[in-house]
Amino acid sequence: MKITPFALERHFAKYEFTAPYLLCCSDCEALKLSELLSMADKESLTLWQELGLGYTESLGHPLLRKEIAKLYGQVTPEEVLVTVPEEGVYIAMQNLLHKGDHVVVTGPGYQSLSEVAVSLGCTLSFWMPEWDQALGWRYLIEELYTLITKETKLIVINFPHNPTGVVLNEADLNKVVEVARERTIPIFSDEMYRYLEHDATFRLPSVAEIYERGIALSGLSKSFALPGLRIGWLISKDKALLQSCAFYKDYTTICSSAPSEVLAIMGLRAKEQIVQRNMEIISGNLQLLDDFFGRHTNLFAWHRPVASSIAFPKFLSLQPVSHYCNELIEKSGVMLLPAPLFGPDAPFFRIGFGRKNLPEALARWEETLF
Fold first, then answer.
1. Please, which pLDDT band fits residue 149 given cuts at 50, 70 and 90?
2. Are the C-beta atoms of residues 26 and 309 closer than 8 Å to each other?
């Protein structure tokens, strides 16, 4: 199997640990170990203090799977497979797809959601959003209908969406499920940003909750501010599919890190505290972005997203956005991610607002605009 280099990750590899102002990251300010331990209950602290550094259960620690299941309605621990987040994408696609299959996937997007299918010899159609100068980004369900054919074997969606921050309304999500069910097409749903809705009423049910052939990916990297644990999961009521993914995992990671699993239990049990902390950071930073972009309407078109810690503003200059972003990071150390890293060669860029140093990064960026 040959696969194209991951453009976004290669770009991060070049700058992530050298650029002083990462104004593009999709995660929230990472928790310190001391902060997480201070939130832990008595049981998980005991697990931590008495932890043996041996192998763990390949499906995931039973307590961890139980805590993950609690995030959903009508999901049992037996319907949870613990994975590394990126591993979840890879092993699910390996079990869902074959050479020659047709796949419909939301775009622009995280490259692995499409590239693994391409590497398997599949053909792809991208469900792209519409940019409206007055309303911002919108996914039109009618557009999805035009992309599905008799050969379609998988629909891949990602809401809240990376990089636009768009969330479907529940009625449209139900329409996606309806059209998939009519044609017995599985849905793979990347839900890594669930719980970062700026208004909780926008939170969608998981595809794995409402569709018998749905499989959902989530994890602790974004909403829980614990990316270093490398803990994610797949959820599905399709027991045969989940078992196949578990068998495939024997050839990838086999099992998770024992310390990461115990720390993940702590994080999940402290969900309300962690999510509230992250939303306070996001809320304050969004106000700063409203003010910043309001001062520079000649250069950028900004619409607040309704979820996540990222947005995809439009660059109004005639200069290519990739050239602008490269010049910005080289001259000022401020890192933005141009649209071509997500697929389309279009005048947009990803900005992240889940980290505490956003005020300093914005100030540095603004210095370059005068």
1. very high
2. yes
Count of residues making up the chain: 370
Residue 66 to residue 44: CA distance in whole angstroms: 13
pLDDT in tens, 56-86: 999 999 999 999 999 998 899 999 999 999 9
Whether 81 contacts 278, CB under 8 Å: no
Q: Residue 262 and residue 258: Cα distance in Å, rounded?
A: 7
Tell me the Ramachandran region of residue 72: left when phi exceeds 0, alpha when psi lies from -120 to 50, beta otherwise.
beta
Query: Dihedral angle at the C-alpha atoms of 80, 86, 92, 94, nearest 10 degrees?
Result: -150
How much is the pTM? 0.96
Stretch (H or E) spanning 286: helix 271-295
CA–CA separation, 329 vs 336, rounded Å? 8
**3 state SS of 352:** strand
* Nearest alpha-carbon partner for 45 in 326, 305, 266: 266
Question: For residue range 94-131, what is the model confidence (pLDDT) as tens digits?
Answer: 999 999 999 999 999 999 999 999 999 999 999 999 99
- 231 CB burial (10 A radius; 0-12, 13-18, 19+): buried
Contact between residue 221 and residue 85 where contact means Cβ atoms under 8 Å apart:
yes
